[in-house]
Amino acid sequence: MPANLVGPVWIDLANSPHVLFFQPVIAALEASGVAVVVTARDFAQTVPLCDFYGLECTVVGKHGGAGLAGKAGNLFGRVAQLRRALGSLRPCVAVSHNSYTQIVAARTMGIPSMTAMDYEHQPANHLAFRLATAIALPEALPVALTARQGASRRKTWRYPGIKEDISLAGFRAEPGYLASVGLDPSRVTAVVRPPADMALYHRFENVLFVGVLDKLRSESIQVVLLPRTHQQADALIAEGFGDMVWDGPVLDGREIVAASDCVISAGGTMNREAAALGIPALSVYAGQPAAVDVWLARSGRLTFVSNADDVHAVKLVKRPSGAVAAQNGSGLLEEFVARMLRLARTL
Question: What does pTM read for this prediction?
Fold first, then answer.
């Protein structure tokens, strides 16, 4: 670790997409000789993905459930758990993708914190943005709204593009990935992600999503349905979509997106990965659309779906093998790491 840092960089992974976002960040830090300590919440595929990508982590806390009371209780409970997990360790900076519990814990410990976020309609932004020392937001997010949430101009870095430009920096797709995980590379393949029905910003049922699954079945598309939780998988199986629910080996999210012919998601990250990689992406999200998704739609890289028939607004056909957009996010990754380290406590 560079001699001027008083402790390691602390990264908290609170949800599955955070693993992919921070994997290249952690690699860049370690390549520079910076020590990193990682904590992870036992929710969705967060911990299994850490294992899959070889990220050593300390598992701290679970999800508070879909109810607001459970989320509030979990917030304070996990703050205490994080402090206990760190013990006498005092990191030089705390970094997350809006891990509210880490930001609160860091504030109570006198540790500077940096948070990234790419969805302006998340109510808990008001807490995270006000308590964080620094904030990283895509330029597409509305300045006036995020400022009201606490993202002042003084502490906010607005970067061009999307966070997936950072998480995919240097990514090169593996040839033959579909066959390597037991899928038929000759068939049209759709990767499908259900709604984030446990999230604070998702307070409704997405009826459209079930209609889309019915439509895909009628077209005999090879569907890789990736539930967010075990409970969600059980519900999809009970509704008759068990043949679509993925039960094979753990998938590399970037590889399966890059190898697919389209991605259909009721959330954000996998669609944005697809958009960054030049894969047709369809959004069936039923809430207020994110500004970054509106920006992607205007640039022709994302299609909003308002009914099941709209799935065919983008033709579901085989893409040419290896046709994946080149990734040029290395500069953003370097800047993200540099800003993080500028916050770090030094000797």
Answer: 0.89
